[in-house]
Design goal:
Layout (H helix, E strand, L loop, with lengths): L1 E6 L2 E5 L4 E5 L8 E10 L12 E12 L3 E7 L4 E7 L2 E12 L2 E4 L14 H22 L7 H6 L30
Antiparallel strand pairs: 1-2, 1-4, 3-8, 4-5, 5-8, 6-7, 8-9
């Protein structure tokens, strides 16, 4: 059983229990929304316009926002760039009932998740201790060898000669780049 409805300038194929995201709808007190019905089908493969009154009723689950879309305006050679972001507002709706020609198709009730049974404190403590021991062993296996800093290597006498050994203007180094120094006459 499905129906094709119109909402927000778009058409949606819905079944009882399906959740759709439509353009933002106005808030209602009872969180119920009724849609315009275009086509109704009682069986797969059969499509027909409703002869009498056809209703598609949904329950508003919540107001959500879509992903950010970046709008970038650019004109080459003119130093013109403009970046704007946009997030579209949507309403999440769960289809609860489709009714036409004296037939009613309703969605199954939502299942509520039961809270997990609390564990005994001793069993919880033993499980966390075993997990910590396993993670410590894995960490030891994956640890990389320690790298020594340059200061420690220099103190130990393992300092490699640098490329800047004693070089400077006082040692007769040539000038590289920039303005040349002026000579006194």
């Amino acid at each position: 059983m499905y129906a094709v409805i119109r909402a927000g300038g778009k058409q949606y194929r819905v079944e009882p229990g399906s959740v759709i995201r439509v353009e933002k709808l106005a808030e209602t007190k009872d969180h119920q929304v009724e849609f315009d019905t275009l086509v109704v089908s009682a069986k797969d493969g059969e499509i027909g316009r409703p002869q009498g009154e056809a209703r598609v009723v949904g329950e508003v689950i919540g107001q959500v926002r879509g992903d950010k879309v970046l709008v970038f305006h650019y004109k080459r050679k003119k130093q013109y760039k403009k970046l704007r972001g946009h997030r579209q507002n949507y309403t999440a709706v769960r289809i609860t009932e489709i009714a036409f020609d004296g037939q009613r198709f309703t969605a199954p009730p939502l299942e509520t998740k039961a809270a997990p049974a609390p564990k005994a404190p001793e069993a919880e403590h033993a499980a966390s201790a075993a997990h910590q021991a396993e993670s410590a062993e894995e960490h030891k296996k994956k640890a990389a060898p320690k790298k020594h800093s340059k200061a420690e290597a220099h103190a130990a006498g393992k300092h490699a000669p640098s490329h800047h050994a004693g070089g400077g203007k006082a040692a007769g180094a040539k000038h590289k780049g920039g303005a040349k120094p002026k000579h006194k006459k």
